[in-house]
Specification:
The complex is a heterotetramer of chains A (361), B (326), C (370) and D (411). Chain B is built from 12 helices and no strands. Chain B has 326 residues and is mainly α. Chain B has a domain of 188 residues: Orthogonal Bundle (MetI-like fold). The two termini of chain C are 32 Å apart. Classes of the chains: A mainly alpha (361), B mainly alpha (326), C alpha+beta (370), D alpha/beta (411).
């Protein structure tokens, strides 16, 4: 009977909408919507306006319109020590990465009995990321920071998925709802203590003279520099954002119909096939929501690169902080922020896609 | 293709150990800070003997206590407002049809996807602009001027908390059988009664989950708070960030340990209550799973083997954390 | 026409419902008598649930008016209507006990405690669930939940009880038992039941009248016998029970009977179509229920009292309580006949697949306009 | 029976929420109580904490304030609290994080009845931005030299009324009339110090004397750090290359950038936050450092030494300021004067391990303080002073931010 449209999803013809429902929307919607609009939309527009104004020594702006900030962003894009050689090197590295990645990808595709072209596309994506990453590390400009932030955040998102998936499956396969909630709460509890303090504890653990390196040394291994490296920053990103992947992914896993997976097994699918063809599509909404949250959280992280990157491994937020802080160049900061927001939102829009977006929203 | 089911134990083991690893990942840093709070050495690193001195020192550390109180106060108020606004928003977005719904949706979830640092900066610009104008308009002098502080922090926190609450509550609204509300109306309940007696209890797990998330986010927010705080409104993360210039004082570890302990107790207590409630509402082995098979009951007329099947799609199971997603 | 003011009547006047561009219900007129058990029967998406929801107040008609007990309730919100519903998903309140679920409507109407307690007791007694008061819905079986939902609705003594596929979530045996239960309840309570279903057996066995719907329209409204024996359209005939459809053309006839010619060359007589017959040449369809079709060796059926066609017996299928024979006519169309099996005898005598057979039925099988 | 079940069912959910609130209420009540208790005994217990002696032989620097304490508690308010009629009840004070012994604030509150709400900043720019935003609510702000110039140029400050600050007579003339505030119209010195180079003496055969230890031949790759401060890092690079510390030419900056980027691979990080603890724990063995910070690290690790490299370093001074829109300028004047009292100044300097601009303070400082200063090598001789420059900041110095953004972009 579900075919009868009982809840149309688009704004319906006014005459067919029940008058009472119409009336009640505004009081429900207005307070929250206004609040968010005041705190987000208006200031957001202000940022755009600021990017066209003149900087003032001491912070803030002088209300004189200028294109300087945008000019500077473009100029900084040009003032780069890298040349075509770098681009060539990036292409070579990317190609090598594609070659290396496609071997296991094709093998996996054959094993899973799936189309090889999809695996090749994945390998190509990987190669593209490697190439972009190479460019990011060579180009000495804002683009580099942007690219780096995006690449690291994507990496953090992938790692978060890798860690959260087994955990979500583990939790949702517990039988008692109380155990489930206990495990979920155990995910949340550490986050009630200040993230700064926990990050400081991570610093201690990974320090050159910290317990981990002491352990390595006592095992007769060399000490490894963990802190202020990409490793530390990505670890920090994962640590900070992981719960935001676990919760939605768990919610999605909880709704997975086990019978379908059993049916797939019954039809002769191997476990990895069941995972890829049945399980993953079913938890896709959770992956999307979690992925979006982790990505956004990571790409704009300030504390993690500051505390664990030690000023040597920086992300966009550090650049913004410089302009709004020491540099006293709010308009340039605003321009970077505006560009950054556009890049983030656009990349989300492109990757998530319209249909899934509807699911997310 | 031959069937192959060996190693069914293997993935289970792998999943279990991977999960254990995640918990280790979460808790080792916490363990370190708990340990440090009992360490005699002032600067971390070496263990200089057990002490509870830092806890007594904490009692005298006004700055830290004030900052903690500020954080809690702001988190509680923001969460309270956000839960109301977020729930209302999710009801409007999920239960009503209106023009511009998509646009409203996009605005509501803006805080979820807007980079924090941009928001902080934008809010600073916005508040310094508007508060200045406001003070001029009201003719406030320097003494009684409206300025940044707890109110501005709360305005900012409520905004992003509302979005997260709306997200989580909407997820539980989506799994809610819409005819539940219709049934209430059908039985003569008006909008209010329906909401209070039927909808709210049914989505309570989502609402609580949203509140929990909002509270966590508000309590731990640094970047946005940093930009919009004012005199006397230093929160714990900001205080700690200031301390990082030297080294985190053991008192910070002590208060973090206390917060950790309190939240553990609190949530464990909540869990206990929840398990009692859910045990009362359903048979021992689950009220929703396919394994909630019917036990033969002293049923006067008709006996049937289909228990559980019918309400499976709309579990009333009070799950504390509703998850972030449909 | 003045709507009937008797308590328990429902009138739909030219009720139309559109969802965007979709026409869900198209100008439906329906008069439900007081105390009647009426079914809205039709396939998925035919508009029957939407029609029901316009009576209960969950949908507002795009056009037309809805009357309950003679009062125009078109603009009355659901919670002020004197009707109650049993939902397909039962929609029991999971956080309330059985007793609280049943008492909900009375509490909302602020009845006094004593009355509530007495009525809840009575209602639970009615559905044979006494002793389950303090259970939660999660602890009940599907059938029990179903009966709680019933009790919750009838305890309010609604003028009309609306049931939206209440049996569809139950398994076969339980469904059959619940049919009796519902019929019994209807008898006991004497209130008007509007019952939505896509299951023709349910509709036929329980209803006083059936409204067969498709694509937002009521195709036929009548007693189960009317609907079964004299389907008004090909859709109704096909939807209710199994039926043979034979294409034919009118060749003559009068007000009492219609002469038609089958493509296979047979001339038949069937019940009249319309008031004054049809002009020769008009295409019609003959609808014959399989159990009305006799099979016999060629030439053995008396063409006087019967309409007869001839063909080849393709197969005989044993169905347990009956046997089903399929006959292929000269033009390739097939005709099905069923016979109840009786102990020790072959239902179709000595007929075997491959035999040339006569298939015949008494004159008066339905003729339908195409 | 049915009813009670139902209610407790709903209450279960409510309870959960209430329980959350209840615990916080308890916590907050505890905070409230503590507020009342602290004032009495805070000064005694608070002071020692940050400068706890690392080794028994180092006399605790914190014993010093003790003799000054009794008069503080018992003396009549007279000279130290200004005019009671004009004095406010409370004052908002914006200071560097971890830059004052909070006992001072408690003493002021007890002695003069003014409660001080101190907020902290971690960058001058942050303080400037807050004041610049208007109606910051702060009556007293402490920022470093160049920030004073910026704020006065933006008309964010009000002139100080020296008549209300008699203790101005105590201030070292060397620290007065600075480039950033000629004639001390808007500011008075709070503490000052230098920026140089700190290292663990056991890590070097011959202690370094030049920035080459960081920029050219860093012997401690992975165990040394530079400050996270565009002006200090680029300034050091510029003087190492033979330019002026405040050089703004593009060519010089291109060179400096290259130098810093080369050094970048070897230092563990650009770090203004953790390096003090890192020096103390041995995580880092050499670091560009603020003078006072080297002293603090010395407290935990007596092998720490501090030098101003041959090429030079910076001298900087933190200052009292009263914003133009300060809610209570009078009380701010009184508080400034209070902090310029010798005993209070001693408390502050003992805590910060900076240099005091107050000529009456040095005799009051403890042996422990002097032990740290001489042990670390923090003495400010004339020879060293000659190598120090002030950081200047004006519009054209925005090139530093441009260059620095390249450093940030690099990794």
């Amino acid at each position: 009977m579900m075919a009868e449209p009982t809840a149309p999803t688009t704004a319906a013809d006014p005459s067919s909408t029940r008058p009472p429902a119409r009336r009640r929307v505004a009081p429900l919607l207005a307070p929250g919507l206004l609040w968010i609009a005041v705190a987000y939309v208006v200031p957001g527009l202000l940022v755009v306006v600021y990017s066209f104004l003149t900087p003032k020594l001491g912070g803030g702006v002088v209300w004189e319109a200028t294109l300087d900030s945008w000019d500077q962003i473009v100029a900084k894009g040009r003032r780069s020590t890298a040349g075509w050689g770098t681009v060539g090197a990036a292409v070579l590295r990317g190609a090598a990465a594609v070659a290396v990645a496609s071997v296991p990808a094709v093998a996996a595709a054959r094993y899973l009995g799936r189309r090889i072209s999809a695996s090749l596309a994945l390998a190509a994506l990987f190669g593209g990321l490697v190439a972009v990453n190479h460019l990011a590390s060579e180009y000495n400009n804002y683009t580099a920071v942007f690219a780096r932030s995006v690449v690291w955040s994507v990496l953090a998102t992938v790692i978060c998925i890798g860690l959260a998936l087994p955990l979500a499956v583990f939790i949702s396969s517990r039988r008692s709802p109380v155990t489930k909630n206990a495990l979920l709460i155990a995910v949340m509890i550490p986050f009630w203590t200040s993230m700064l303090v926990r990050t400081y504890a991570i610093r201690f653990l990974f320090a050159n003279t910290g317990p981990l390196n002491n352990l390595l040394e006592s095992l007769g291994l060399d000490r490894i520099v963990f802190l202020n490296t990409r490793f530390a920053v990505i670890l920090g990103l994962v640590y900070t954002a992981l719960p935001f992947m676990i919760l939605p992914l768990y919610a999605a896993t909880e709704r997975v119909d086990r019978a379908q997976m059993e049916a797939a097994r019954d039809l002769g699918a191997r476990p990895p096939q069941v995972f890829a063809d049945v399980f993953l599509p079913m938890v896709k909404p959770g992956l999307i929501v979690g992925g979006v949250m982790v990505f956004v959280l990571s790409v704009s992280q300030y504390l993690v690169p500051t505390l664990l990157g030690g000023g040597k491994t920086n992300m966009i937020a550090n650049l913004l902080e410089l302009q709004f802080g020491e540099a006293f160049n709010w308009p340039l900061g605003a321009a970077i922020a505006a560009l950054f927001s556009v890049v983030t939102l656009a990349s989300l829009y492109v990757t998530v896609g319209r249909r899934d977006q509807e699911q997310f929203l | 293709m031959s069937r192959r089911h060996p190693g069914t134990r293997m993935p289970k083991l792998a999943i279990g150990s991977a999960s254990a690893l995640v918990y280790v990942f979460f808790y080792v840093p916490v363990a370190v800070l708990v340990l440090f709070s009992f360490n005699q050495a002032r600067t971390g690193g070496r263990w200089a003997g057990f002490t509870t001195d830092w806890y007594s020192a904490l009692a005298d550390n006004d700055r830290l206590l004030t900052a903690t109180w500020n954080s809690l106060f702001i988190a509680i108020i923001s969460t309270a407002i956000a839960v109301v606004l977020g729930t209302m928003l999710s009801l409007a977005l999920d239960r009503r049809v209106f023009r511009g719904r998509t646009a409203a949706q996009q605005v509501v979830y803006l805080p979820v996807i807007a980079p924090e640092i941009v928001t902080g900066v934008a809010l600073l610009a916005f508040f310094s602009l508007t508060l200045g104008r406001l003070n001029d308009m009201l003719g406030r002098s320097a003494q009684d001027a409206i300025r940044m502080g707890r109110p501005t922090i709360i305005i900012a926190h409520v905004a992003f908390c509302t979005a997260f609450v709306a997200l989580v509550v909407r997820a539980s609204l989506r799994t809610l059988d819409p005819s539940l509300e219709e049934a209430a109306q059908d039985l003569g309940a008006n909008g209010w009664t329906t909401f209070w007696r039927v909808t709210l209890p049914a989505i309570m797990p989502g609402v609580l989950g949203g509140a929990l998330l909002a509270f966590t986010l508000s309590l731990d927010n640094f970047v946005i708070t940093f930009f919009v705080s004012g005199p006397g409104a230093t929160t714990l993360p900001i205080e700690v960030f200031g301390q990082l210039r030297r080294t985190i004082s053991p008192e910070v570890n002590a208060i973090s340990t206390l917060i950790f302990g309190a939240s553990t107790l609190l949530l464990t207590g909540a869990l206990g209550i929840q398990s009692a409630v859910s045990r009362r509402r359903s048979r021992p082995d689950g009220d929703s799973g396919p394994d909630g098979a019917a036990v033969a009951r002293p049923d006067a007329g008709l006996r049937n083997p289909d228990a559980g099947a019918s309400h499976k799609s709309y579990p009333s199971n009070p799950q504390l954390i509703g998850g972030g997603k449909p | 026409m003045e709507p009937n003011h008797e308590r328990g009547t429902v009138s739909l006047r030219e009720v139309t419902k559109r969802f965007g561009d979709t026409l869900a219900v198209a100008a439906v007129d329906l008069e439900v008598k007081a105390g009647e058990f009426i079914s809205l029967l039709g396939p998925s998406g035919c508009g029957k649930t939407t029609t029901l929801r316009m009576i209960s107040g969950f949908e507002h008609p795009s056009e037309g008016r809805v009357f309950i007990s003679g009062r125009d309730v078109t603009d009355t919100p659901a919670h002020r209507r004197t009707v109650n519903s049993v939902f397909q998903s039962y929609a029991l309140f999971g956080h309330m006990t059985v007793a609280d679920n049943v008492a909900f409507g009375l509490r909302v109407k602020r009845r006094d405690k004593k009355t509530i307690e007495a009525k809840v007791h009575e209602a639970l007694d009615l559905v044979q669930l006494l002793g389950f008061q303090s259970r939660y819905p999660g602890q009940l079986s599907g059938g029990q939940q179903q009966r709680v939902a019933l009790a919750r609705a009838v305890v309010n003594e609604p003028e009309v009880l609306l049931l939206d596929e209440p049996l569809s979530a139950l398994d076969l045996k339980l469904r059959q038992a619940m049919r009796f239960e519902l019929t019994r309840l209807h008898g006991d309570l004497g209130m008007t039941f509007v019952f939505v279903t896509h299951d023709q057996t349910e509709a036929i066995t329980m209803s006083d009248r059936i409204a067969v719907m498709d694509q937002g329209r009521i195709h036929q409204l009548g007693t189960p016998v009317d609907i079964y024996e004299r389907p008004a359209s090909r859709f109704v005939a096909e939807f209710i029970g199994e039926v043979n459809m034979l294409e034919a053309a009118v060749v003559g006839g009068d007000g009492a009977r219609t002469e038609v010619l089958l493509p296979s060359g047979h001339r038949l007589t069937c019940a009249p179509v319309g008031a004054d017959g049809l002009s020769p040449g008009a295409p019609v369809v003959i609808a014959v229920r399989p159990q009305r079709v006799l099979l016999a060796p060629e030439g053995e059926i008396d063409p006087g009292g019967h309409a007869v066609v001839t063909g080849e017996l393709r197969e005989l299928l044993f169905l347990g309580d009956s046997t089903r024979g399929t006959v292929r006519l000269a033009d390739g169309s097939e005709l099905v006949a069923t016979r109840y099996n009786e102990a020790g005898t072959h239902p179709f005598g000595l007929l075997r697949p491959g035999d040339r057979v006569d298939a015949g039925w008494r004159h008066g099988a339905a003729c339908l306009v195409e | 029976m049915t009813k009670s079940t139902r209610i407790s069912g709903t209450r279960g959910l409510l309870l959960r929420l209430l329980a959350v609130l209840a615990v916080f209420a308890v916590v907050s009540a505890a905070c409230g109580n503590d507020d009342d208790d602290t004032t009495a005994d805070a000064p005694a217990t608070q002071a020692p904490a940050p400068t706890e002696p690392p080794a028994p032989e180092a006399p605790a620097p914190t014993e010093a304030p003790a003799p000054t304490e009794p008069p503080a508690a018992d003396e009549p308010v007279s000279g130290r609290c200004g005019d009671p009629a004009r004095l406010g009840d409370s004052i908002n004070f914006l200071n560097w994080a971890d830059y004052i012994d909070v006992a001072v604030l408690d003493m002021f509150e007890e002695e003069c009845g003014v409660s001080v709400t101190m907020d902290t900043h971690v960058a001058n720019e942050e303080a400037v931005a807050k004041v610049d935003a208007g109606n910051s609510g702060y009556s007293l702000v402490i920022v470093t030299d160049y920030a004073v110039e910026i704020m006065s140029s933006q008309d964010l400050l009000q002139p100080l009324d020296m008549g209300e600050i008699p203790n101005v007579a105590n201030i070292d003339p060397n620290q007065m009339d600075p480039y950033y505030d000629p004639g001390n119209v808007y500011s008075l010195p709070y503490q000052y110090s230098t920026t140089g180079f700190a290292f663990d003496v056991t890590a070097f055969d011959t202690p370094p004397t030049s920035y080459s230890a960081i920029f050219d031949e860093n012997p401690l790759c992975g165990q040394s750090s530079l400050l996270e401060d565009q002006r200090e890092v680029l300034g050091a690079a510029l003087v190492y290359l033979g330019y002026d510390w405040n050089e703004t030419s593009q060519a010089a900056h291109d060179e400096a950038l290259e130098l810093v980027l080369d050094a970048r691979d070897c230092v563990t990080g650009f770090d203004s936050a953790n390096y003090i603890g890192n020096l103390a724990s041995g995580e880092v063995l050499a670091a560009q450092s603020w003078g006072f910070a080297a002293g603090i690290a010395y407290l935990d690790n007596p092998n720490i030494r501090y030098i101003i490299p041959d090429e030079g370093g910076t001298i900087w001074q933190d200052n009292f300021l009263i914003p133009a829109d300060a809610p209570d300028p009078y009380t701010a004047h009184v508080l400034i004067n209070y902090m310029l009292e010798p005993d209070i100044g001693a408390l502050i300097t003992e805590f910060t391990i900076g240099y005091t601009p107050n000529l009456l303070v040095p005799p009051l400082l403890s042996d422990g303080y002097y032990e740290v200063v001489s042990g670390t090598g923090l003495e400010l001789t004339d020879e060293i002073r000659d190598r120090l420059v002030w950081q200047v900041r004006s519009e054209e110095h925005s090139i530093f931010a441009d260059t620095w953004s390249q450093v940030i972009a690099a990794g």
